[in-house]
Protein backbone atom coordinates (compact mmCIF):
# COMPACT_ATOMS: atom_id res chain seq x y z
CA UNK A 1 0.00 0.00 0.00
CA UNK A 2 1.36 3.38 -1.05
CA UNK A 3 0.69 6.34 1.26
CA UNK A 4 0.73 9.86 -0.20
CA UNK A 5 0.30 12.87 2.09
CA UNK A 6 -0.65 16.20 0.53
CA UNK A 7 0.52 19.41 2.14
CA UNK A 8 -2.80 21.18 1.67
CA UNK A 9 -6.27 20.76 0.19
CA UNK A 10 -5.31 22.26 -3.19
CA UNK A 11 -2.47 19.79 -3.63
CA UNK A 12 -4.71 16.94 -2.45
CA UNK A 13 -7.35 17.70 -5.08
CA UNK A 14 -4.77 18.19 -7.84
CA UNK A 15 -3.07 14.86 -7.12
CA UNK A 16 -6.26 12.84 -7.54
CA UNK A 17 -7.33 14.88 -10.57
CA UNK A 18 -4.04 14.07 -12.28
CA UNK A 19 -4.33 10.39 -11.32
CA UNK A 20 -7.64 10.29 -13.21
CA UNK A 21 -6.26 12.19 -16.20
CA UNK A 22 -3.09 10.10 -16.20
CA UNK A 23 -5.11 6.89 -16.35
CA UNK A 24 -7.00 8.16 -19.41
CA UNK A 25 -3.79 9.31 -21.12
CA UNK A 26 -2.14 5.96 -20.43
CA UNK A 27 -5.07 3.88 -21.70
CA UNK A 28 -7.66 5.51 -23.95
CA UNK A 29 -10.38 2.97 -23.20
CA UNK A 30 -9.88 3.04 -19.44
CA UNK A 31 -12.77 2.04 -17.19
CA UNK A 32 -12.78 4.49 -14.28
CA UNK A 33 -14.85 4.20 -11.11
CA UNK A 34 -15.64 7.48 -9.39
CA UNK A 35 -17.06 8.45 -6.00
CA UNK A 36 -19.26 11.31 -4.89
CA UNK A 37 -19.10 13.42 -1.77
CA UNK A 38 -17.30 16.38 -0.26
CA UNK A 39 -13.91 14.70 -0.72
CA UNK A 40 -14.22 14.34 -4.49
CA UNK A 41 -16.12 17.45 -5.64
CA UNK A 42 -13.07 19.68 -6.13
CA UNK A 43 -11.01 17.00 -7.87
CA UNK A 44 -13.80 16.59 -10.42
CA UNK A 45 -13.82 20.36 -10.94
CA UNK A 46 -10.06 20.36 -11.57
CA UNK A 47 -10.32 17.56 -14.15
CA UNK A 48 -13.06 19.54 -15.90
CA UNK A 49 -11.03 22.77 -15.87
CA UNK A 50 -7.92 21.08 -17.21
CA UNK A 51 -9.96 19.46 -19.97
CA UNK A 52 -11.33 22.87 -20.97
CA UNK A 53 -7.82 24.37 -21.08
CA UNK A 54 -6.06 21.40 -22.69
CA UNK A 55 -8.59 18.91 -24.11
CA UNK A 56 -7.51 15.28 -23.89
CA UNK A 57 -9.09 12.33 -25.64
CA UNK A 58 -11.95 10.82 -23.64
CA UNK A 59 -13.70 9.33 -26.67
CA UNK A 60 -13.16 5.73 -25.52
CA UNK A 61 -13.07 6.13 -21.72
CA UNK A 62 -15.86 4.53 -19.70
CA UNK A 63 -17.00 5.82 -16.31
CA UNK A 64 -19.22 4.66 -13.47
CA UNK A 65 -19.81 5.59 -9.85
CA UNK A 66 -19.16 3.09 -7.09
CA UNK A 67 -22.70 3.45 -5.77
CA UNK A 68 -26.11 5.03 -6.31
CA UNK A 69 -29.08 5.95 -4.14
CA UNK A 70 -32.24 3.88 -4.47
CA UNK A 71 -35.92 4.80 -4.41
CA UNK A 72 -35.26 8.43 -5.35
CA UNK A 73 -35.61 10.03 -8.79
CA UNK A 74 -32.44 10.23 -10.86
CA UNK A 75 -33.21 13.95 -11.27
CA UNK A 76 -32.56 14.51 -7.53
CA UNK A 77 -29.47 16.74 -7.39
CA UNK A 78 -27.97 14.48 -4.73
CA UNK A 79 -28.17 11.32 -6.81
CA UNK A 80 -24.77 10.01 -7.80
CA UNK A 81 -25.81 10.07 -11.45
CA UNK A 82 -26.73 13.77 -11.27
CA UNK A 83 -23.61 14.75 -9.32
CA UNK A 84 -21.13 12.96 -11.58
CA UNK A 85 -22.90 14.32 -14.65
CA UNK A 86 -22.88 17.95 -13.42
CA UNK A 87 -19.44 17.88 -11.79
CA UNK A 88 -17.50 16.06 -14.49
CA UNK A 89 -19.00 14.10 -17.36
CA UNK A 90 -21.10 16.88 -18.88
CA UNK A 91 -17.91 18.97 -19.06
CA UNK A 92 -16.07 16.11 -20.78
CA UNK A 93 -18.92 15.39 -23.17
CA UNK A 94 -19.25 11.75 -22.12
CA UNK A 95 -22.52 10.20 -23.37
CA UNK A 96 -24.70 7.92 -21.25
CA UNK A 97 -23.59 4.82 -23.13
CA UNK A 98 -20.14 5.31 -21.59
CA UNK A 99 -21.51 6.20 -18.16
CA UNK A 100 -22.48 2.89 -16.58
CA UNK A 101 -25.01 3.49 -13.82
CA UNK A 102 -27.90 1.55 -12.30
CA UNK A 103 -31.41 2.93 -12.21
CA UNK A 104 -32.38 4.78 -9.05
CA UNK A 105 -35.97 3.51 -9.21
CA UNK A 106 -36.79 -0.11 -9.93
CA UNK A 107 -39.10 -2.96 -9.00
CA UNK A 108 -36.13 -5.34 -8.96
CA UNK A 109 -32.95 -3.94 -7.46
CA UNK A 110 -31.40 -7.39 -7.29
CA UNK A 111 -31.58 -7.46 -11.08
CA UNK A 112 -30.27 -3.89 -11.30
CA UNK A 113 -27.33 -4.89 -9.10
CA UNK A 114 -26.44 -7.79 -11.39
CA UNK A 115 -26.82 -5.64 -14.51
CA UNK A 116 -24.59 -2.92 -13.03
CA UNK A 117 -21.83 -5.35 -12.11
CA UNK A 118 -22.13 -7.19 -15.42
CA UNK A 119 -21.87 -3.96 -17.42
CA UNK A 120 -18.57 -3.07 -15.73
CA UNK A 121 -17.25 -6.58 -16.26
CA UNK A 122 -18.28 -6.55 -19.93
CA UNK A 123 -16.14 -3.44 -20.44
CA UNK A 124 -13.13 -5.21 -18.93
CA UNK A 125 -13.46 -4.26 -15.27
CA UNK A 126 -12.25 -1.17 -13.44
CA UNK A 127 -8.76 0.06 -14.32
CA UNK A 128 -8.97 2.71 -11.61
CA UNK A 129 -11.39 3.01 -8.70
CA UNK A 130 -11.52 6.21 -6.65
CA UNK A 131 -12.91 5.66 -3.15
CA UNK A 132 -13.79 7.83 -0.21
CA UNK A 133 -14.11 6.51 3.32
CA UNK A 134 -17.05 7.05 5.63
CA UNK A 135 -16.83 8.08 9.27
CA UNK A 136 -17.47 4.42 10.20
CA UNK A 137 -15.05 2.98 7.63
CA UNK A 138 -17.54 2.23 4.88
CA UNK A 139 -16.40 2.14 1.26
CA UNK A 140 -19.04 2.55 -1.39
CA UNK A 141 -22.10 2.10 0.79
CA UNK A 142 -20.79 -1.11 2.34
CA UNK A 143 -21.42 -0.53 6.03
CA UNK A 144 -19.55 -2.20 8.91
CA UNK A 145 -20.39 -5.89 9.01
CA UNK A 146 -20.70 -6.25 5.23
CA UNK A 147 -19.06 -9.56 4.25
CA UNK A 148 -15.77 -9.15 2.42
CA UNK A 149 -17.10 -11.62 -0.16
CA UNK A 150 -20.07 -9.42 -1.07
CA UNK A 151 -21.01 -8.69 -4.67
CA UNK A 152 -23.00 -5.68 -5.85
CA UNK A 153 -26.09 -5.23 -3.70
CA UNK A 154 -28.42 -2.70 -2.03
CA UNK A 155 -27.07 -1.68 1.37
CA UNK A 156 -28.68 0.47 4.03
CA UNK A 157 -27.18 3.96 4.29
CA UNK A 158 -25.43 5.08 7.43
CA UNK A 159 -27.85 6.95 9.69
CA UNK A 160 -26.19 10.37 9.33
CA UNK A 161 -26.23 10.30 5.54
CA UNK A 162 -29.77 8.94 5.37
CA UNK A 163 -31.04 11.70 7.66
CA UNK A 164 -29.45 14.31 5.38
CA UNK A 165 -31.00 12.80 2.24
CA UNK A 166 -34.42 12.73 3.87
CA UNK A 167 -34.09 16.40 4.86
CA UNK A 168 -33.09 17.39 1.33
CA UNK A 169 -35.80 15.39 -0.43
CA UNK A 170 -38.63 15.52 2.08
CA UNK A 171 -38.93 11.74 1.86
CA UNK A 172 -40.82 10.43 4.91
CA UNK A 173 -39.42 7.79 7.26
CA UNK A 174 -41.78 5.15 5.88
CA UNK A 175 -40.24 5.41 2.40
CA UNK A 176 -37.34 2.95 2.25
CA UNK A 177 -34.01 4.35 1.06
CA UNK A 178 -30.76 2.54 0.39
CA UNK A 179 -27.65 2.50 -1.70
CA UNK A 180 -26.94 0.17 -4.59
CA UNK A 181 -23.21 -0.34 -4.26
CA UNK A 182 -20.41 -2.41 -5.68
CA UNK A 183 -19.72 -5.11 -3.14
CA UNK A 184 -16.41 -5.33 -1.34
CA UNK A 185 -15.26 -8.30 -3.41
CA UNK A 186 -16.18 -6.38 -6.57
CA UNK A 187 -14.26 -3.28 -5.43
CA UNK A 188 -11.21 -5.42 -4.67
CA UNK A 189 -11.24 -6.69 -8.27
CA UNK A 190 -10.31 -3.18 -9.48
CA UNK A 191 -6.83 -3.20 -10.96
CA UNK A 192 -5.90 0.01 -9.14
CA UNK A 193 -7.54 1.78 -6.21
CA UNK A 194 -7.07 5.26 -4.73
CA UNK A 195 -8.58 5.82 -1.30
CA UNK A 196 -8.83 9.57 -0.68
CA UNK A 197 -9.52 11.13 2.73
CA UNK A 198 -9.10 14.63 4.07
CA UNK A 199 -9.90 16.42 7.29
CA UNK A 200 -9.23 15.79 10.98
CA UNK A 201 -12.62 14.07 11.34
CA UNK A 202 -11.28 11.20 9.19
CA UNK A 203 -8.02 10.75 11.15
CA UNK A 204 -9.19 8.08 13.58
CA UNK A 205 -10.98 5.91 11.03
CA UNK A 206 -7.94 6.17 8.74
CA UNK A 207 -5.79 4.89 11.59
CA UNK A 208 -8.14 1.95 12.08
CA UNK A 209 -8.34 1.20 8.36
CA UNK A 210 -4.59 1.32 7.72
CA UNK A 211 -3.06 0.18 11.01
CA UNK A 212 -5.76 -1.92 12.62
CA UNK A 213 -6.70 -5.51 11.86
CA UNK A 214 -8.36 -6.42 8.56
CA UNK A 215 -11.90 -6.79 9.79
CA UNK A 216 -15.43 -6.54 8.43
CA UNK A 217 -16.11 -4.12 11.30
CA UNK A 218 -14.01 -1.59 9.31
CA UNK A 219 -14.76 -2.30 5.63
CA UNK A 220 -11.92 -0.09 4.34
CA UNK A 221 -9.38 -2.23 6.19
CA UNK A 222 -9.63 -4.81 3.37
CA UNK A 223 -7.65 -2.39 1.20
CA UNK A 224 -4.54 -3.38 3.16
CA UNK A 225 -4.66 -6.57 1.06
CA UNK A 226 -5.05 -4.95 -2.35
CA UNK A 227 -1.92 -5.29 -4.54
CA UNK A 228 -2.16 -1.80 -6.07
CA UNK A 229 -3.78 0.64 -3.64
CA UNK A 230 -2.71 4.22 -2.98
CA UNK A 231 -4.04 6.09 0.05
CA UNK A 232 -4.06 9.84 -0.40
CA UNK A 233 -4.38 11.91 2.78
CA UNK A 234 -4.01 15.51 3.79
CA UNK A 235 -2.03 16.33 6.93
CA UNK A 236 -5.15 16.41 9.10
CA UNK A 237 -6.45 13.02 7.98
CA UNK A 238 -2.97 11.52 8.48
CA UNK A 239 -2.44 13.16 11.87
CA UNK A 240 -3.33 10.25 14.15
CA UNK A 241 -0.83 7.94 12.46
CA UNK A 242 1.42 10.64 10.98
CA UNK A 243 4.72 9.38 12.37
CA UNK A 244 4.39 6.07 10.57
CA UNK A 245 3.81 7.74 7.21
CA UNK A 246 6.43 10.53 7.32
From TrEMBL:
Keywords linked to the UniProt accession: Carbohydrate metabolism
A UniProt-annotated Pfam family: Glucosamine_iso
Record has Metal-binding as a keyword: no
Entry's transmembrane regions: none
Source domain of life: Bacteria
Keyword Electron transport: no
UniProt xrefs under InterPro entries: Glc/Gal-6P_isomerase, GlcN6P_deaminase-like, Glucosamine6P_isomerase, NagB/RpiA_transferase-like
Annotated ranges, domain Glucosamine/galactosamine-6-phosphate isomerase: 22-224
Cited PANTHER family: GLUCOSAMINE-6-PHOSPHATE DEAMINASE-LIKE PROTEIN BT_0258-RELATED (PTHR42892), GLUCOSAMINE-6-PHOSPHATE ISOMERASE (PTHR42892:SF1)
Name of protein: Glucosamine-6-phosphate deaminase
Organism: Hungatella hominis
Amino acid sequence: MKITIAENEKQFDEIVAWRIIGQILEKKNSVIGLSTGQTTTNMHRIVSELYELHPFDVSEAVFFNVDELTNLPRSYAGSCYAMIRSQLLDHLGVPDERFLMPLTESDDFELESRKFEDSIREHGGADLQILGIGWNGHIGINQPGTPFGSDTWVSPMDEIFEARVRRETGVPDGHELGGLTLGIRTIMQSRRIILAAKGAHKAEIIRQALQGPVTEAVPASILQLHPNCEVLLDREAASTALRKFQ
